[in-house]
Structure prediction request, 273 residues.
Amino acid sequence: MDDTPPLGAYRAFQDFAGPRLWGPGNTWRATYGRGVVADLAEGLRAHPAAVHQRFPGKAEAYPVVLGCVPWITSREVVDALLAIGNYCVVVDKSAYGPQLDRLSSEGEGVWQMLLRDLQDWGPSDEGGRHPVVHPYHMPGDRGLEPVRVVGWRQRGKEKVPLLHAKLAVCCAAYTWESDGGGWDDHLLPMSVWMGSANWTTASQWHIEFGAWSHDEALAKDSLDFLTAVIKLSEPQGSVAGRPSPELVAGEWDDDAFAELMSEYSEAEEPEPE
Prediction:
């Protein structure tokens, strides 16, 4: 392919050489043609500074990226994600290669408790029993791996459904004082990248589209979508031929919570005068 002119290099696309600014204050941008994945990497590299600029020091904020894409071979994108450190990217089961190996082995993953809809989700045990939620344990108090997989394993030339969405949500994880005087952990989606391009080196030869947006509603919905993708996902080493979600909803130990509330009530009762 190195000797083949990129489609985006043809004269018809000469007016689409760089990003187009749009949105409030021209702070959002769209890219067309051959530079889409490079623009994705640029936005990822800029994310840590955006997080530190937005939050005061006491929030102890740090950048987090959640994403999904069928395949990753772009060193530029992988380098940008590794610089962020905390990320979870879900890929199709057909994905492979040295850049994906780097992404999997050198990243730090994401604390699952940051995703509100996954706080009481966890792996079932060997007997297939759901994890138990009790006052001193939440199944989501674990790390999500930097790379997870979803979908079907192709056998021969068999056509199977793909994880075909290409989406990244750049978030800020931070702590803030709660109404009760303690400190709570939060995850704020700040920006969204969406596009047609796989995060691959070959994408520069294609005609692609990609866009960054800071729209709050879009960022929230995109994070919810990625949470649903993670619910369907499996560890990277899964050999399951069909979708076999690792995570399941926990079962709440109501008796343990009732006992704890009873203890609190007894402790708060005033002593007789």
User: Anything to note?
Assistant: The chain has one domain: 7-109+145-242. The two ends are 88 Å apart (CA to CA).
